[in-house]
Amino acid sequence: MSAPSQPLLDRIEGIAAPYGLMTMGGGHIEAEQTIVLLGTAATFWDKFIETREFSDAKVDPVDRWSKRVMPEIMQAAGAQDVIFPFGGPPYAPFLSWAKQTGEAFDSPVGMLVHYRSGLMISYRGALVFDRCLPLPDMRLSNPCDDCTDRPCLTACPVDALSELHPYDVPACKSYLATDKGDSCVTLGCAVRRACPVSQSFGRAIAQSAHHMRAFKGELG
Question: pLDDT digits over 167-179, tens only?
Answer without folding.
Answer: 999 999 999 999 9
